[in-house]
Design goal:
Helix content is about 35%, strand content about 15%. The chain is of the alpha/beta class and about 200 residues long. Strands 1-6-2-5-3-4 form a six-stranded mixed beta sheet. This is Histidine phosphatase family protein.
Amino acid sequence: MSNTFLASSDHWRNRYLLMRHGHSQANQQKLIISSPERGIDAFGLSEMGEQQLAQVVAKWAWPTPDRVIHSDFLRTTQTAARVASAFKLEMSRDERLRERYFGEFEGEGDIHYPDVWALDAHDAEHCHRQVEAVSSVAARMMAVIEHWEAQTHDETILLVSHGDPLQILLTALAGKPLSQHREQLALLPASITAVGAR
């Protein structure tokens, strides 16, 4: 459940571990939970997700993180807490790492994801049915990286976020058209992708 991503920049100051939250109750119930009103206080990790995190922490194969930054949704907060506890680190919330907002599909079945992704492939700016544009997600996710690149040096920073935002971020870091974000290898729950300085 791990990937190593070679970004186009050779001038990284830090290493980043991009982690998707563990399997969640939303995954289990096949629901789209993308609004803070639903996602911050509910739909945390499923029992499977808890087991995934226990395994990841027990078999940690990455540099030890210096910081843990996470989306404030419950599923990402719980994921970050498992890693932070293992390494005795403080956690910091960053709303820019939140799930992509899926607009009118919020609370609906996850069968609607492919419909949105098909539109993404034609237009990274679309906001069909109030879905957050891919370009908007990319901007906020890149802003997190830019912030830490400006603030710190030679650190390993764990960023805990969600599947769509992380795939969009990886697409942006690769310098590829954002409309191609679904061509990235799908990020599995509790997976970690390394980017940045070696």
